[in-house]
Amino acid sequence: MVEQTKYNSRQRLLATRSGLSPQWVAQANQSIGQHILQILQLKTVRCLAVYFPIRSEPDIINHYVKYTEYCQLALPVCTQSGKLSFLSWQPGQGLVSGSYNIPVPAHAEEIEPDALLLPCVGFNTMGYRLGYGGGWFDRTLETKSASLSTYGVAYNCLRDDHFPVQPHDIPLTAIVTEAGFYRPPIK
Q1: d(CA 37, CA 42)
Q2: Are 140 and 112 in contact (CB under 8 A)?
Q3: Exposed/middle/buried for 34, CB within 10 Å: 0-12, 13-18, 19+?
């Protein structure tokens, strides 16, 4: 039942996201990218794991060069263990097609980020992320340090306070949208 409810929420939110106008999306992406830049300007981040957008996820790639003024970047790579590892990367560096045809660095060293951007299919105001259902980020986060800062990236219209949260789900540090930040309540 929980998986069916998550599946239904996921399908509805993906349809919403894919139906957004290109002009609105371009403006929203610009705002999201600027909000993330504010994080880097206010918080010391040594290494930020970024992502290449798929399936109409927020596209903030044009901000990545500016982010390198504040920190090293890394890209996630799917591993045999079912978890993500992270490879150092700089804009302009060579890429190859990785799992799910997502670009990954052609030649890079593994690195541990201290902050992570996670694209979201949806999110709630308690700081939980709804993803595609593969569990890559969940399995990765359960083994990471509690000091890892995790920032969900989504459009504000993808807020859904009704999808079920399961015991293995981990709340994120904050959700970044074009409207600003959602921070989960402190427990």
Answers
A1: 9
A2: no
A3: middle
Whole-model pTM? 0.91
Q: Say how far apart CA 44 and CA 21 lie, in whole Å.
A: 35
Token pair recorded at residue 123: 């999110």
Q: Each residue of 21-62: pLDDT tens digit?
A: 999 999 999 999 999 999 999 999 999 999 999 989 999 999
Is residue 106 within 8 Å of 85, Cβ to Cβ? no
For residue 117 the two structure tokens come to: 């951007």
- H-helix segments, 22-143: 22-42, 64-67, 136-141
Bin 174: left if φ > 0, else alpha if -120 < ψ < 50, else beta: beta
Per this entry, what is the length of the chain?
A: 187
**H or E stretch covering 175:** strand 174-177
Whether 150 and 84 have beta carbons less than 8 Å apart is answered as no
Q: Indicate the helix (H) or strand (E) that contains 12.
A: helix 2-18
Cα 175 from Cα 168, distance rounded (Å):
19
User: What is the Cβ-side half-sphere exposure of residue 29, based on CA atoms within 13 angstroms?
Assistant: 19
User: By the 8 A CB rule, do 129 and 165 touch?
Assistant: no
Q: Report pLDDT digits (tens) over 57-86.
A: 999 999 999 999 999 999 998 777 777 889
